[in-house]
Amino acid sequence: MSQELKIDSNECKLLFADPIQSESAGILLRSRLQASGRRMGFSDVRRENMVLVASEMVTNLIKHAGGKGMIQVWQQPGPALDIISFDFGPGVDDLALAQQDGYSTSKTLGKGLGSMQRLSDEFGIYTQQEKDAKHGRWHGTALWTRFYLNKHNSAGSAGLNMPAVAQSGFEIGVFSRALNDDRFNGDKIYLQQHGAKLRLLHLDGLGHGEIAQRVTSNLGCYLSVEGLDKLLAAVDHHLTTGERGAVAIAAEFDLSKKNLNVLGVGDMSAYVYIHDSINNLSFAPGILGREHKTPTATQLVFEKKTLFITASDGIRRGWDKDSFPRLFNQHPQLIAYVLGNVMPRVTDDQSICVIRLN
Fold first, then answer.
1. CA 209 to CA 187: how far, in whole Å?
2. Is residue 257 situated within a structural domain?
3. Do both 190 and 317 map to the same domain?
4. Is 293 exposed, middle or buried (0-12, 13-18, 19+ CB in 10 A)?
5. How many domains does the chain have?
6. What is the average pLDDT across 274-280?
7. Where does the source fall among the domains of life (predicted)?
8. What does R_g of the chain's alpha carbons equal in angstroms?
9. How far apart, in Å, are the Cα atoms of 48 and each of 44, 74, 198?
10. Which residues span the domain enclosing 271?
11. From the centroid of its chain, how far is CA 90?
């Protein structure tokens, strides 16, 4: 297990997000992938694999969703490059059958799924049929593929050198998108691991834009403060001299004790998915750096299948596990992408962090 892991949501960058309505739309996508992969340091072979995956996604969107969808390319901590296909089609009837090589009908995604999975380092698929879409919110299919820059295979299937994120003992998903895809984002997620303990600080600066980003920048240093109450007190003190306040959630996972401690101030959301149910956590009202009530810690047993989700108020509430059947068994990164794309408020920055024991 890695003894130290640091993640800053500044590393989470949306590089491409366009609707795909025809094969010609894939030309810009492939060009952007080549340029982004080259800039990040991926080899020619790895970039070609990305292009092949993207081409399969374009074909699937047109053939099975009638061009009602989009493809996103994200740079993520790791470093890693993610390619996401998100459509508004009918969904897949039999997902297990659809993933078999050689199987293709007008109601499935066909044999391309197997090749996408083999070409990428991580792969996930989530589908919801129209008849299962609660409140008519969303139906379709989301495909996630990931390419790690630092993963190499030196001897067949042996000799894998995975990045710190993949060795941390946790599965982590991060989604952070600025309002109107502005260059400035007032939402910030910091993660830091030392040994068996993983710390999270998720902040939302009031408002949005450049000032909100300045408010929440450079606060990751407080993750080293002993005690979550003292951590939030230090952030509170820091923000008293700032231009705006912020709301925040602080959490600590202890692998040795199998517990989770959570503390928060302000209008943010946190959910714990355990034993097939989702529980919402509430936090002290107020604003850090301004006025707020004293926060009270919540301690939970953190079992292997427990899922912890935090979100800024840029993500709409009012969803539960029945809104997204089987989603919360998926990889945290795919969960973050689905919630971020289906549940955003179009008036604020949006951010989600999803954590599960690996």
1. 10
2. yes
3. yes
4. exposed
5. 2
6. 88
7. Bacteria
8. 20
9. 6, 17, 35
10. 170-357
11. 24
